[in-house]
Amino acid sequence: MALPERNNEGFLENAWQWDKATAEVIAAESGISLTDDHWEIIGLLREFYKQHEMSPPSNRLFVKAVKEILGEDKGNSIYLMQLFPGTPAKTACRIAGLPRPTNCL
After folding, report:
1. What confidence score (pLDDT) does residue 102 get?
2. Structural domain containing residue 51
3. Is 100 inside a domain boundary?
4. Is there a contact between 92 and 41 (Cβ–Cβ < 8 Å)?
5. φ and ψ at 50, to 5 degrees?
6. For the chain, what is the domain count?
7. pLDDT at 81 over 80
8. Which CATH number belongs to the domain containing residue 56 in this structure?
9. Active-site residue, selected from the candidate residues 32, 42, 45, 104
């Protein structure tokens, strides 16, 4: 499968070229096999992007957004790190086809 154009960090150049097959390939590159829990967060991120035309700018705001929508069980750093190892906001945004969060290292 030919992926849409990406930058040197693996983020899509155009978020609107994303689809679920693209997400599966990008996730596999990070050693992640997507489950319903992943798709729930990816859907939340895509909706956030539609509303705000930006990715959550930091990991802290990513966790806060998840907490507001899905509750404390899923809106916490430990849960999100289990799904998206490393820097959860950065990893999740890459898989969701969104721009790199501005404050993520």
Report:
1. 73
2. 15-95
3. no
4. yes
5. -60, -40
6. 1
7. yes
8. 1.10.10.370
9. 104
- Structure confidence by residue, pLDDT tens digits, 24-45: 999 999 999 999 999 999 999 9
pLDDT by residue (tens digit) across 55-74? Answer: 887 888 899 999 999 999 99
Q: Please give the distance of CA 10 from its chain centroid, rounded to a whole number.
A: 12
pLDDT given at position 3: 82
Does residue 1 sit within a domain? no
Angle CA 20–26–30, to nearest 5: 135
In a domain, 8, yes or no: no
Q: How many CB atoms lie within 10 A of CB 33?
A: 8
93 is an active site residue: no
Distance CA 44, CA 48 (A): 6
Residue 87: inside a domain: yes
Query: What is the 3-state secondary structure of the chain?
Result: CCCCCECCCCCECCHHHCCHHHHHHHHHHCCCCCCHHHHHHHHHHHHHHHHHCCCCCCHHHHHHHHHHHHCCCCCCHHHHHHHCCCCHHHHHHHHCCCCCCCCCC
